[in-house]
Amino acid sequence: MTVRQRRRWARTIQFAVALAVLALLAALADWGRIADSFFQVDIAAAMFPAAWTAFGNTVLYTIFAFIFGMVVAVPVALMRVSSFFLYRWVATAYVETFRGLPALLVLFGVGFGVPLAFPGIQYPGGVYGQVALGLGLTSSAYIAESIRAGIQAVPKGQVEAARTLGMSHTRTMISIVLPQALRIVIPPLTNELVMLTKDSSLVSVLGVTAGTLELTKFARDEMSDTANATPLIVGGLLYLLLTVPLSALARRLETKEDRK
C-alpha cells in the first residue's frame, strides 16, 4: 500500500475503535438513572429567572476584572520593555508574582488580607470591586506578557523611522507601537477573557450574597437544595453560552491575523 492508503486505513481503524468504545459505554450506562440525576426538566425550569441573575453577575465579574487587568497591564508591559533597569525589575517582579500565585489566593488576600491590614477599607462597588481587583491583578500579569510580546513583534524599522522623523520615545510607543501591538495580541486577549470567565467561579470565597452569586455558587446551592445534579448541567450550559462564542471569536481572529 502507498503511504496515503496506509494513513487512510489507520484513520479508519481509529474511527472504528472510537465508535466501538462509545457504543460499549452507551450499552453499559444506566440511562434511567442518568436522566433522574442530571436531566430533571422541572428542576431546571425552577432555576429561572434566578439563574439569569447569576449569569449576569458572571458577565459583570469577567468584564470588570478584564478592564482592570488591561488598565494595569499596558503600563506594566511598557515597563517590561523599558531601557531603564529599575522599571524592568519592578515590572518583572510584578508579572512573576501574580502569574505564580493562584487566583484563589489573590482573592483571599484582597477579600480578607487587605481589610485586616487596613481596617475600615471599603472597595468601590463592594464585591464587584473586590473581584475586579482580585481577578484583575492575576489577569493583568498574563495580559502584560501578551502585550509585551506584541510590542516586540512590531518591526524595529518602524520605531527607527518614527525617531528619525523627530518623534520622542513616548510618542513613538503611544502612536506607532502600541496600536499595532494591541491588534497583534487581540486573539490571546480573547483567550484570557475566556479564562477570566471560568475563574469567576472562584468569587464565592468572598462570601457573596443572593444578589451577587455567580453561576458556580448558584448551581452548587441549587444542587444542595434539590439533592439533584441537574443544576450543575444548567450551570455548565450557561458557562458554555459565554465561553463557546468567545472561543470561536478567538479562533476567527487568529485565522484573520495569520492571513495578514
Compact overview of the structure:
Belongs to the binding-protein-dependent transport system permease family. HisMQ subfamily. This protein is mainly alpha-helical and 260 residues long.
Q: How would you name the oligomeric state of the polypeptide chains in this document?
A: single chain
Number of helices: 12
The structural domain count equals: 1
Rg over alpha carbons: 24 Å
At the fourth level of CATH, the homologous superfamily is MetI-like
What is the third-level CATH name, the topology?
MetI-like fold
Second-tier CATH architecture: Orthogonal Bundle
User: What level of helicity do the residues show?
Assistant: over 70%
The end-to-end distance, rounded to whole angstroms, is: 40 Å
Mean pLDDT across the residues is 85
Q: Structural class of the secondary elements?
A: mainly alpha
Q: Beta-sheet strand percentage?
A: under 5%
For the largest beta-sheet, the strand count, sense and barrel status come to:
none
User: What is the element string, with H for helices and E for strands?
Assistant: HHHHHHHHHHHH
- In total, the number of strands is 0
Outline type: flat
Low-confidence stretches: none
- Assigned CATH class: Mainly Alpha
Protein name: Amino acid ABC transporter permease
Transmembrane segments: 59-79, 100-118, 232-250
Membrane topology: Multi-pass membrane protein
GO molecular function, one term: transmembrane transporter activity
Secondary structure topology:
Elements: H1 3-28, H2 31-38, H3 41-46, H4 50-80, H5 85-100, H6 103-117, H7 127-153, H8 156-164, H9 169-184, H10 186-199, H11 215-226, H12 230-259
